[in-house]
Amino acid sequence: MRLSMTQISRFIGEVVPVAQRVTGDGGESAAPEGGGGFADYALVSLHYLRIYLDSSYRMTIDLLKEMPQLTSSSA
């Protein structure tokens, strides 16, 4: 299945707030500066996106690297 950036962006826009509520990370940055990793909600969102795309983590991360507007708008 090939999805447009708009479809993926819409999906991320719906998933991130849910993941923030579930993890309690609502006010936290996805990748805090000076931190040792990513916020829990960012990892949960990545997992949801991987399932939605039916792809591996590597392919999902590669896709996000090619679409910086998604990662900057959802953080």
How would you spell out the order of helices and strands?
Answer: HHHH
Mean pLDDT: 82
Rg, Å, rounded: 12 Å
Residue fraction in strands = under 5%
Query: Count of DSSP helices?
Result: 4
**What would the principal axes of the Cα set say about the shape?**
globular
The major sheet is characterized as: none
Taking pLDDT < 50 over at least 5 consecutive residues as the criterion, the unreliable ranges are none
Furnish the topology, listing elements before pairings:
Blueprint: H1 5-23, H2 40-53, H3 57-66, H4 68-74
Helix pairs in contact: 1-2, 2-3
For the structure shown, list the relevant keywords.
75 residues, mainly alpha, 67% helix
Structural write-up:
The protein is 67% helix and 0% strand. The model has no long low-confidence stretch (mean pLDDT 82). The protein has one domain.
